[in-house]
Amino acid sequence: MCLNEKPTMSKKNKSVMKKLQMGALHAEAGRLENAEASFSEAALEDPTCSEAHYNLAVLFLEDGRMDRAIEKFLRVVSLSPDIFLVHKEFGETIIEYEVPYFDSKTEFRDMSAFNSAIASYREAIDAIPILRECHRNIGEVLMTKGQYNEADTAFAKATKIPSDLQEVFHNVGVTIHCPGNLDNAISMHRTAMACAPDYEGDEISEQSFLETDLSFTDNEILLPDGFEVMMEWERPIMERSAEMITINGGDVLNVGFGMAIIDTAIQAHNVSTHTIIEAHPQVVRKARAWARDKDGVNIIAKRWQDAIGDIGPFDGIYFDTLMPPMIPFLRESSNLLKKGGVFTFFQMMVQFENIEAMADTELHFVLERMPFKAVEKNRYYRLLEKNSSGHYSAPLFIYRKI
Known about the structure:
The protein has 17 helices and ten strands. The protein has helices spanning 14-28, 32-45, 50-62, 66-79, 83-96, 112-144, 148-159, 165-170, 172-177, 182-195, 206-210, 235-245, 261-267, 281-291, 304-307, 327-336, 352-358; strands at 215-216, 220-222, 228-231, 251-255, 273-277, 297-300, 314-319, 337-345, 364-372, 392-400. Helix 13 (261-267) links the parallel strand 4 and strand 5 (273-277). Helix 2 packs antiparallel against helix 3, helix 4 runs antiparallel to helix 6 (112-144) and helix 16 runs parallel beside helix 17. The chain is elongated. The two termini are 46 Å apart. The mean pLDDT is 89.
C-alpha cells in the first residue's frame, strides 16, 4: 500500500499534519531518510498517530528492516479501534433510540450518545483496510523469516477482515439487525446485494436525469432502461412517513412528488399548507394536475437547492428524490424546521453517510422499525433484512427540532 492510499485513522493537530505531509513528499521524491525523519517526528509529537506509525512501517519494510516493520504494524493495530466491538456498540446504541410506534407523545432523546457512537463507527470504517493490510504485511514478513505458524495466524486475522467489510459497515440496516454478530451482518449484506445489485446502467447526472423521458405505469416510474425510480410497494412506508411529518399539522414540505403516494397521504391529515418541490418536468406536470382541486398546495418546479432559500420553516418535512445530492439537504434540515418540527427521509438502504450527516444538525432522534410484507418485483431496494417474525423491516429514522 502506498503512503497516500491509506485512510485517515486519527485526529491530528496542524503540526503533526504538516510533518506527515512533508514525509509523504519526501517519500514520493525518493528521499527516504528525510521521510523517515518527518514521520518519526510526527510519531514522537503524537504517539497515537496511526498514520505516522504505518508510514514508518512501510519505509522499514521497503528498507528490509523487517523487525522494525512488524513492530510498527503492530503499533498501528494496537492503536486501531476494535472494529467488531464498535459494530456491536453502534447497533446497540441505535436500538436504544427505538420506539415501538412514533406518535405525538413520543419523547425524543438528544443525539449525544448516538453522535459519539457515530464518531467511533467512522473511525472503525476508516481503520478496516489499514488493519487488513497490517495483518497481511506481518504475515508476509513472518513467512520470509520462516515463522510459518505465526504467519498463518497473521493471515487468518487479515482474512477475518473481508474486502467488502467497509460496505457491510456502511449498510446500517444489517448493523441494526445484527449488533454483536458481524458474521451474520456480513452474510445478510451479501444476500441483500446478490438480490439487489448496484445499478448497472450508465452513470446518470442530475441534469441528465431531469432531461430523461420517464415511463409511468400504475405501479411504478421507470427510466428508459427499466430502472425503477419509484414503486407501488413503497406505499406503506410513504403513508407511515406522512403520519409522522403531519403530527404537528401546520406547514408541511415534501421534496420529490414521484407517484403522489406521500402527497396524497399528507392530504388525508389536517395541515395548513402543503409545499411540494419537484424538478423533473414530466413529474411537475403530473403534480400540478394532481393539485388542481386541492387547497393550500404549492408546487415549486425547481431543484431543492434552488428553492429552499425562499421557503420555510416547516412543521414537518419529508425528503425522497432519486438523484443526489442528498447529504447537503440533510445538513440543512434543521434550518428548515420550526421548533418541534419533524423530519424523516426515504433511504434505498440505511446508509451510514446519511446518518453521519444528521449528526451535526443538533436534532433529536428516535427510530421506528416498520415491518411490511415481501417486496415484489424488486431489483434495487436493499432493505431485504427480515425481522424475527419473517417480515421485511424498514428502519425509519425520525428527527425533531427541540
